[in-house]
Amino acid sequence: STLPAVAEELLREIKKAFQETSQVPDDLLLGLKFIFGPCAVPALDLVDQRSVTRVRSPSGRTLYQVLGSSGKLYTCYSSCHFCTCPAFGFSVLQKSESLLCKHILAVYLSQAMGACQELAVSEEQLTNILLAEEEDEG
């Protein structure tokens, strides 16, 4: 599954602008709010607070953890546009009101702006992170 082409293009433009000027121009910020709605500003706040961590194992498996504004850690999978937060389950999956939640948008913005923290873990540690998420959901 992929984001709509307009959203993908916007993220590419943000990345390009950020590489050139180290900031996101107002027109792209407006586009962000237009496409992603009310989660755009909170997502930018998460990026500013450097709340996004890319977790990588030696085999190359990657997931992202985002420290939410509530202090809870959410696991995001950018490859399939999925987040473990309740807002994702409700407004994205159940009601189809949003393309994604603020956490997964923060992941994409952090990637575009090179603002991800990096964490290398063992395969076992990565498995434990994934299993812990399943227990939370169960």
From TrEMBL:
Superkingdom in the source lineage: Eukaryota
GO biological process: double-strand break repair via homologous recombination
InterPro entries per record: Znf_SWIM
Protein name per UniProt: ZSWM7 protein
GO CC term (a single one): Shu complex
Gene designation: Zswim7
Keyword Zinc-finger: yes
Record-linked PROSITE patterns: ZF_SWIM
